[in-house]
Amino acid sequence: MQVLKSETLSLLADEQVVAVRQGVRNLAIAAGLSLVEQTKIITAASELARNTIIHGKGGHVVMELLQNGSRKGVRLTFEDAGPGIRDIDQAMTDGFTTNKGMGLGLGGAKRLCNEFTIESTVGQGTRVSIARWK
Question: pTM above 0.85?
Answer without folding.
Answer: yes
